[in-house]
Design brief:
Layout lengths: L2 E4 L9 H16 L3 E6 L9 H14 L8 E2 L4 H13 L3 E4 L3 H13 L24 E4 L6 E6 L3 E6 H4 L4 E3 L7 H11 L4 E5 L6 H11 L5 E5 L2 E2 L15 H6 L4 H10 L12 H7 L10 E2 L2 H13 L3 H9 L11 H9 L5 H12 L7 H7 L4 H14 L6 H15 L3 H13 L7 H22 L1
Helix pairs in contact: 1-10, 6-7, 9-11, 13-19, 15-18, 16-17, 16-18, 16-19, 17-19, 18-19
This protein binds glutamic acid.
Amino acid sequence: MVVTRFAPSPTGYLHIGGLRTALLSYLWARRNNGKFLLRIEDTDFSRNDEAAARAIVEAFKWVGLEHDGVIEYQSSRLKIYQEYAQKLLDEGKAYKCYMSKEELDALREEQTARKERAKYDNRYRDFTGTPPEGCEAVIRIKAPLEGSITVHDGVKGDVVFNVADILDDFIIARADGTPTYNFVVAVDDALMGVTDVIRGDDHLSNTPKQIVVYKALGFPLPKFFHVPMIHNSEGKKLSKRDGATDVMMYKQMGYTPEALLNFLVRLGWSHGDQEIFSMNEMLELFDPSDINRSASVYNVDKLDWLNSHYLKNTPNDKLCELLEFHGVMLISHDKREILLDAIKERAKTLAEMAVLVSEILVSPAEYDEAALKKGYKEESRAILEAFAAALKGAKDLHLPTDYHHVMEAVVTEMGIGFGKIGQPLRIALMGKLSGPGLDNVMAIIGVDETLKRIESLLKY
Ligand code: GLU
């Protein structure tokens, strides 16, 4: 059985890079009818990370990724890590080191002065004497002293690490008994039966250390897939300056989970030149061995494009529901079908849709100066007056086409082009020269409101 996991260190919110690796792990587990676990790596036990964990769960809920079983918190597994550290001590695969901070600093300084890599010099590796007084021991694992460790990575291929360059007998438990990061990750992945570790390639250099732990404890190695980072357009690691990194910000901005997940799956993975993937298609097609080897570039235009695609294809009932989050209540609006059809082609996000809705439903508080200059001329008043009179005389105005016929009659009667009425009417209705089709706007707001807005402009 394939078991994957997402193992965030709680930073206060779920990062979109994190959501990408969570998604890939989720897809791979589900595709194989396996399990997808969620583990909070709160190894900084002094902090209360419940709020951060809640933020992660909330984001998972919003995008619809479900994890199996309970959320595991490393902070509540301390005893397990101590047991395994003790096991390694008992088997002579780890040892206590009594080096003080001063000694360690002095060693580091000497090595740096010699232009060597700063690393522990194994002085307590075979120590059998009496421990120095007043010094709390840390536990160090016996790492290989020479040779190399190869990470067989499903994305990068075989990556060979020269032991002399990257390893030493690293600490697995600090003097206060708390375990260290690389130790707990390996212990947990092994105990939780994780078969496929899919994570960011910023963790690739940790993998040899974790392999040392696996080997010492006699655990089978999982498969590793290190996913290249998401970069900005300048080729640097994505940061807050490049756009939102908090997943929940995307909800605020009016992106749909479908668009965001589609966007993220394509950041680093492809299937031919297909761009649009439903969840079912992702589940059918995703294979971590197809993850791209090079970094992917964050491109918000692509996300906007995907989001418009999903918005256009969202049923109106569902759109009404989604818009409520953006403060728009349309459930009982009798013209909501026309309204939503009129705007969903025009908006990239739900937030933009919400703005369009209020631009239509609320009469303009002011008129755009440039629009007035361009579209409200001497002759415009007479045209608007004629149109208002025609509206008053017309019966059964309901559909956009009904309004269109009235407009048509007026322009024919006056021998003018549509633009001559369209521009001032648009200013009257929306306060500016852009927006959805006027026939739609009038059908949505109705005759009385249309007349009111025309009169307001005439009085202006
Ligand atoms: N806790 C690590 C992080 O948030 C991830 C560790 C892992 O996936 O192995 O970066």
